């Protein structure tokens, strides 16, 4: 191949070199060690979480869910029911949302029901726990506490 003869029709030799795909580099042990079940890492199952906003802008909640999905990759957040789920997270709750929490408990009897909102203490928390909530979280809340609240099975206010 010379500079005056193209390597491929319509392509010069220099262009051919620039357009070659980069070689794939494997870790040294990948080529010499066969993959076995004992060496494979256990596959993590992401837990499904239905997010139910009781108040607020749905676009803002969707952005929150997008952000939390990046922060908590072990949780598969959904804004619509349908996917298998282990947690229902009710956001923007107040004491008067007891009937909505009770309805969600009836719809998802096997899911952990986590309720978050501003000012949920004392009688407000007790009312939501009576309605079927498993966990009450204040708002705003640090991501670490939210993660623990969505993944822990403890029933607390």
What is the strand and helix layout of this fold?
Blueprint: H1 13-18, H2 28-32, E1 47-53, H3 58-71, E2 75-78, E3 87-91, H4 98-107, E4 112-117, H5 123-131, E5 135-138, H6 143-151
Parallel strand pairs: 1-2, 1-3, 3-4, 4-5
Report on the structure:
This protein has 157 residues and is an alpha/beta fold. The chain is built from six helices and five strands; from the N terminus they run ααβαββαβαβα. It has helices spanning 13-18, 28-32, 58-71, 98-107, 123-131, 143-151; strands at 47-53, 75-78, 87-91, 112-117, 135-138. A five-stranded parallel sheet has the order 2-1-3-4-5, sandwiched between helices. Helix 4 runs parallel beside helix 5.
**SSE ordering:** HHEHEEHEHEH
Q: Summarize the main sheet.
A: 5 strands, parallel
Number of strands: 5
**C-alpha Rg (nearest Å):** 26 Å
| Low-pLDDT residue spans | 5-17, 20-43
* DSSP helix fraction: 25-40%
Which structural class should the secondary elements be placed in? alpha/beta
Strand order of the largest sheet: 2-1-3-4-5
The oligomerization state is single chain
Roughly what fraction of the amino acids lie in strands?
15-25%
Q: Quick one: overall form?
A: globular
Q: Report mean pLDDT, rounded to a whole number.
A: 79
């Amino acid at each position: 191949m010379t500079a005056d003869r193209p390597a491929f029709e319509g392509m010069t030799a220099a262009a051919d070199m620039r357009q070659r795909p980069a070689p794939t580099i494997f870790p040294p042990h990948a080529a010499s060690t066969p993959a076995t079940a004992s060496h494979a890492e256990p596959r993590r199952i992401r837990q499904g979480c239905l997010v139910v906003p009781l108040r607020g802008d749905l676009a803002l909640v969707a952005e929150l869910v997008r952000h939390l999905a990046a922060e908590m990759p072990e949780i598969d957040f959904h804004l619509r029911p349908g996917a298998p789920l282990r947690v229902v997270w009710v956001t923007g709750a107040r004491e008067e949302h007891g009937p909505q929490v009770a309805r969600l408990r009836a719809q998802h009897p096997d899911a952990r029901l986590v309720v978050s909102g501003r000012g949920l203490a004392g009688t407000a928390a007790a009312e939501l726990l009576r309605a079927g909530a498993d966990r009450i979280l204040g708002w705003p809340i640090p991501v670490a506490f939210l993660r623990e609240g969505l993944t822990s099975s403890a029933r607390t206010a």
